[in-house]
Amino acid sequence: MRAAPADRTQTTSTPYLICALAWFLPGAGHFWLGRRQKGIVFLVALSLMFAFGLWLQGRLFPFEITQPLVALMAVADVGVGLPYFVARTAGIGAGDVVAVTYEYGNTFIIAAGLLNMLVVLDAFDIAKGRK
Amino acid sequence: MVIFSLFVSVVFAVLTRDDPKEQLKFGARLFGGFIGAGILMGWLLYPLPL
C-alpha cells in the first residue's frame, strides 16, 4: 500500500550533500530520498529539455561579469548540472545567433537549469523533513 | 511553445503534488493554461507592429 505523503516525512543528516547530488544529476536527490518516480521524471524531463535547447541552436553562456545578464544566464545554464558539463566538454552549445530557433533554444536551456534549482530546493525540504 | 509547456507542466506537477492523479490533473490544468495564455497573448499582440 502506498504511504500517504504525511507518513513519508523524513529527516536526514546530509541535506547539503543531497542538494549537491540533486544539482549535479537532476532528480538524484529525490531518488536518494526514496522518491524514485519523481527522481526519474525529473531526470528525463530536465535532461530532455536541456538537450532540446541545444538542438534548437541555444547557447551555453559564458560567465562574463561585465555583462550581468549574460552572467545570470550562465548561472541558470549551470543549474542543470551534469548535462551542462557534458555539453561543455563535448563542445556543444556554441549557439547560432542567426538561427531562427536561437532564442527558443536559450529559453529551453535556461528554464531547464532554473527548474533543476527548484528541484534541488524541493529535495532540501524533503531532506529537512518539511515535506 | 507546446513542447516547452509540456516539459514545464510535467516538472511543476510532479514537484508540487504527491498523488499521481493529482499530478495528472494539475499538470493538465497547467498545460492548458500555458497554451491558452500563449494563444491569447498571440491574438492580443497581433495588431501591434513588430
Describe the overall structure.
The complex is a heterodimer of chains A (131) and B (50). By secondary structure, chain A is mostly helical. Chain A has helices spanning 15-24, 28-32, 36-55, 68-78, 82-90, 102-127. In chain A, helix 1 (15-24) runs antiparallel to helix 6 (102-127), helix 3 (36-55) packs antiparallel against helix 6 (102-127) and helix 4 packs across helix 6 (102-127). Chain B has 50 residues and is mainly alpha-helical. Chain B has one domain (2-45). Chain B has two helices and no strands. The longest helix of chain B has 26 residues, at 20-45. The model of chain B has no long low-confidence stretch (mean pLDDT 93).
Structure described in brief:
The complex is a heterodimer of chains A (131) and B (50). By secondary structure, chain A is an all-alpha fold.
Largest interface: which pair?
Answer: A-B, 18 and 10 residues
Q: Beta fraction of the residues of chain B?
A: under 5%
The total beta strand count of chain B reads 0
Number of helices, counting only DSSP H or I runs of 4 residues or more of chain A? 6
- Give the termini distance of chain A in whole angstroms: 20 Å
Question: What string gives the helices and strands of chain B in order?
Answer: HH
User: What number of structural domains do the residues of chain B give?
Assistant: 1
| Percent of residues in helices of chain B | over 70%
Quaternary structure annotation: heterodimer
Shape of chain B: elongated
Question: In terms of structural class, how would the helical and strand content of chain A be classed?
Answer: mainly alpha
Rg from alpha-carbon coordinates of chain B: 13 Å
The tally of beta strands of chain A, per DSSP, is 0
* Total of helices of chain B: 2
Helix percentage range of chain A = 55-70%
Average residue pLDDT of chain B: 93
